[in-house]
Here is the input.
Amino acid sequence: MPFQLQPAEAWDIDVDRLDYLKTRPTAGDRWVLNFGPQHPATHTTIRIVLELDGERVVRATPHIGYLHSGFEKLGEHHDYNQYVCTISRMDYISPIVNDIAWHHAAEKLFDVDLTPRCKVVRTILAELGRIQNHLLCVGAAALDLGAFTGFLYGFNEREHIYDIIDYISGQRFHPDYTRVGGVMRDIPDDEVFKRMVRKFIDERLPSALKDMETLLNRNRIFIDRVQGVGVVTEEEATAWSLTGPLARASGVRRDLRKDDPYLCYQDNWDGQGADPVEFSVPIATAGDCFSRYLVRLEEIRQSRRIIHQLIDDIPTGPINSNPDGKMHIPDKGDVYGSIEATIQHFEIIMTNRGWAAPVGECYSAIESPNGELGYYVVADGGRCPWRVAVRPPSFINFAAFSKMLEGHQLADLVAVMGSINVIAAELDR
Here is the structure.
């Protein structure tokens, strides 16, 4: 006897409607299977209630919220620099991207322009974060389908990006590196940084991509598991407001680096007529899991292309827009060595001093590895935001998951979920 979901009348939730099954009146008994919340292929803590007709998925009902951390509410209790330590935990696959996204919004609110040096450094780090994210997504998607070696190819290279992040910020996993108008600290040594980045993008990354493509691109088992699975049409992707590789794999030609450029993606980014970095936006049309895999691989190559254009010509000069203002904590050596720096430090840190925040609101977004990552900020003039709301790409993209899975086999669930690259901490917030 199959288990039957009962309606939760107190919440006015109807879980018994089977109208969608009328097209298959001859089907036998259906049964309910819980996928997760603890399962190695969920990539995170998510419960999915599956209604099955044999091995065929008739309906999938996601249950989220297991990793709810109150990221948005915490924004009301941290100042505009402290909050970066919270939101870097949101998309923990590439935390540096979260840092950049938050302070991109804060700088728009404060009407602060970045120095050319800061723009270049942030752009390089943003693209390293994109590579970091895509390597894990492609590797984990292959792992879920049995290709363990592909996962190792991607995960191993991520370690070298962690080394680069560690060198400039002092932390590998959660750098918390950006600040309003700049960064926590300047690059310790430009030549060492350049050498580390060049070695990664010129020696290690091409070899890893070649190995991964050799393993997967013509692998009969992998192709059969992902081709034609989880199809999203261009019209559906637009209707569902999908962004990032998920949308571009369905033919939606949208990338905020092109459509709403920022940092070194915009024209005249250095104030002296510099051209924006050149790169292509990969587009596929099939809209299936295989297309999403191919789009991510090509985006890795385009990120490598962007870094190549910037790494040899990192501008000199200050990295913070106003190092003497009330936005930047002075270096510890200066604090211990001069009364002026000590006063500046306390002016920023003390709760009754510092931040001359405006009164207003703004929304700003960047192209994160998974799509549009935006922040809506409301300021009341205090040292902390009055309200913070996040537009996380995982939350929007995951809305299409149930529709993508309907009609497929149970075994296809892990392929579809892996291709979306859902991050639960970002999903639940």
Notes: The chain has two domains: 9-63, 71-428. Residues 1-16 have pLDDT under 50 and may be disordered. The first helix runs from residue 71 to 74.
